[in-house]
């Protein structure tokens, strides 16, 4: 019953679906049922009166026709053990969290397929701040299920199509996709790039720098998606370019905001006034970079964020090094790299 789970539950309930939202907190469940507000995560949003909250997972899943997973990505594997005994047979599972598993390098869809076999697995992703969505600002997202789950004879019966229709409302507009990998990669990588944009903004740089990071970040997404079997054009859609643009442009984004605070020189433990906040790009910098290194995809912006967040690299020096990398072609097709004249100025200065 976090912010995005509540927003999606409200969207589906407003679209006329019977929705049960599950979570761990009795108090939050009671508040949603009694006052139609999620007092912990989005107190100012009026929730549909038909939305039912529960802490009983068996009740939440009883008769479900689709199950949406909306927790931080690193908690997903444990959550599977909680839901496994109660899942209706063959019910479609929809990832609404964004990330790649640390250690295994699994896309979250692979994780679900491993932990909960026998279910069609898809993802809902796009430029969707939870609060704006729940307040009814026009919002669009992509719903992707792998091509294996497309019904070629009756496409409207495919899970992506059925779910898109079920969740559509005047303000919420889903688009269908059969490129699950491309959609997942967009969601996982954009958060890391948003931290980079935030860091550069916090360090005092301006719009040119941010636009360069967004565009070159999209290039990193494309190569990772393609290397894993996704499609480049998916990266130019809502779940890639759309979400990247949103997240890299607004302090509403927790990823961008973390970057800004770090760029301004705030110590990590003092960011967000010391409160625990879900920042997927921070944990996913590790999994994205690890996966990219394993399969030989160059992701210099993600590497820079990883080095600053997790290897103690100096922020200013790391970004100077990023800008002074060998000069290369755009797009990357041309295998030519030229030494950058400023590279000599980006070695560590003696203390
Ligand atoms: N917020 C947004 O605008 C959007 C978020 N997302 C994605 O949605 C995912 C969730 O983020 P968001 O809703 O914002 O995060 P929030 O911090 O708002 O909520 C997180 C939720 O996850 C629950 N949770 C945490 N750990 C566990 C666990 N081990 N088992 C079960 N439940 C757990 C929390 O429960 P409790 O309160 O009990 O701790 C809480 O209900 C992320 O991957 C994020 O990238 C995607 C699009 C938009
Ligand atoms: O994914 C999001 C919007 O699409 C939310 O972004 P943040 O997690 O950075 O707040």
Give a description of the structure.
InterPro entries: 6-PGluconate_DH-like_C_sf (IPR008927), 6PGD_dom2 (IPR013328), G3P_DH_NAD-dep (IPR006168), G3P_DH_NAD-dep_C (IPR006109), G3P_DH_NAD-dep_N (IPR011128), NAD(P)-bd_dom_sf (IPR036291). This is Glycerol-3-phosphate dehydrogenase [NAD(P)+]. Catalyzes the reduction of the glycolytic intermediate dihydroxyacetone phosphate (DHAP) to sn-glycerol 3-phosphate (G3P), the key precursor for phospholipid synthesis. The protein has about 350 residues and is of the alpha/beta class. The protein folds into two domains: about 5-180, 3-Layer(aba) Sandwich (Rossmann fold), CATH 3.40.50; about 180-345, N-(1-d-carboxylethyl)-l-norvaline Dehydrogenase, domain 2 (Orthogonal Bundle), CATH 1.10.1040. The chain contains 15 helices and nine strands. Strands 3-4-5-6-7 form a five-stranded mixed beta sheet, sandwiched between helices. It has a two-stranded parallel ribbon with strand order 1-2. Strand 3 (about 65-70), helix 4 (about 75-85) and strand 4 (about 95) form a beta-alpha-beta unit. Helix 8 runs antiparallel to helix 9 (about 205-225), helix 8 (about 180-200) runs parallel beside helix 12 (about 255-265) and helix 14 packs antiparallel against helix 15 (about 315-325). The longest helix is centred in the middle third of the chain and has 23 residues, at about 180-200. The mean pLDDT is about 95.
